[in-house]
Amino acid sequence: MGFFMSKSMDANLRRQQEFMLHNSRLQLERQILMQNQMRERQAAMQLAWSREFLKYFGTFFAVAAFGLTAGAMKRKRPILVAPLLPLGFILIYQVDAAYGTLMHRVRGEAESIMASERTRLEVPHGIPTFDSIEKDRRARSSLGAILDK
């Protein structure tokens, strides 16, 4: 009779372990999906910010270009249009960031770095472990208890 109970308990334990593994997988999938959605939202916010900034900078550039060109023609000093060169680079960059392929090129470069320059991405002192975090937490809590006295 003990053998049959043991066999039944083993089967229940196995089913419970499979259930826990299944739940762990579901939780991990949900976390990955949530993090991806947050990343997508942040990227959308960044892109929207670039487009909004472009409107203001484009207006500034147009007014500055008109004013500097008019001033250069009126005073007959072509050097007055010199600020348009760096401002033009900034404008082109913003147009590329807002509507061009800048994000695709940056993503491609990031993938290349991750593939061929992995050592540049290492975190100082390595990846935090549970033990290192717990050690730091204990040190801080004991320090807090000492300071409270």
UniProtKB/TrEMBL annotation:
GO annotation terms (biological process): positive regulation of plasminogen activation
Xref: InterPro entries: Plg-R(KT) (IPR019319)
GO cellular component terms listed in the entry, alphabetical order: plasma membrane
Pfam entry (one): DUF2368
Entry keywords, A to Z: Membrane, Transmembrane, Transmembrane helix
Superkingdom assignment: Eukaryota
Protein name per Swiss-Prot or TrEMBL: Plasminogen receptor, C-terminal lysine transmembrane protein
Transmembrane segments: 53-73, 79-99
